[in-house]
Amino acid sequence: MRSRSSSNASSISLSSDSPAVENTQIFVKLLNGETIPLTLPPNTTLSTLRHLISLRLSLPAPSFRLQHAGHHLTSPSSPLASLPPNATIDVTIPVRGGAPKKIRCTFKDCKDQAQRIVGDCSFCQGQFCGKHRMLEDHKCSGLEDCKKESHERNADKLNSERTMVVKGI
Q: Which helix (H) or strand (E) is 92 found in, with range?
C-alpha cells in the first residue's frame, strides 16, 4: 500500500523524474519573517527559484533579491547544488537612496571632485575640478567656438560704442 505524503500550504516542492537523484531541502525566509521549506531537485537553477518565490509573493522577480549568508545570489544559471543542505535563503528588497554621489572631474585620469557652478563647461557640457575648469586646461572641444563667439561679442560691443563724426555741421 502506497502512502501519500501530505503537503501544507507553505511548503513548495518540485518533483524530479529520476528517483535515484536525491532532492535538496532549503528554507526561504520571506519579507514578512515567515520561513517556508522548499524541496528541490539538485539541478534547480537560481532563476527557477526566483520564479517560484515570485509566484508565492505575487511580486515580479526583478523586484526582490536573494541572499545566502550575507551574500547576494546573482548568477541566474547557477545551480542551487552549490548551497549547503538545509541552507536558509533570505528574500530582500533593494533599498534605494543614500547620500548623493560626489561629482568627479570629467577630465581623463583626474579623480578630484568637480566644482559646483564654476566647474561646469557650457561648451562641452563637462564638469571639472579647480585645475581643469578653464577651457584651455581641459582642452575643450568648444574652445574655437568660444573664441569666435567672444570675438564677435567684443566686435559688436565696440561697433555699438563707436562715435560717428558728422561732417558739415
A: strand 88-92
What are the C-alpha distances in Å from 48 to residues 13, 81, 91? 12, 13, 14
Cα separation, 107 vs 128, whole angstroms: 7
**The one-letter amino acid at 86:** N
Pairing of strands 35-40, 65-68: unpaired
Q: Are 37 and 86 in contact (CB under 8 A)?
A: no
Burial of 143 (0-12, 13-18, 19+ CB in 10 A): middle
Per-residue pLDDT, averaged over 11-22, amounts to: 52
List Cβ neighbours of 144 (8 Å cut-off, separation of 6 or more): none
pTM > 0.90 = no
Query: Per mean pLDDT, which of 77-81, 136-140, 150-154 is the most reliable?
Result: 150-154
Rounded Cα distance between 88 and 25, Å, is: 10
Model confidence over 52-94: pLDDT tens digits?
888 887 777 777 788 888 777 777 667 776 778 788 888 887 7
HSE-up of residue 36 (Cα within 13 Å, Cβ side): 19
More confident residue, 49 or 154: 154
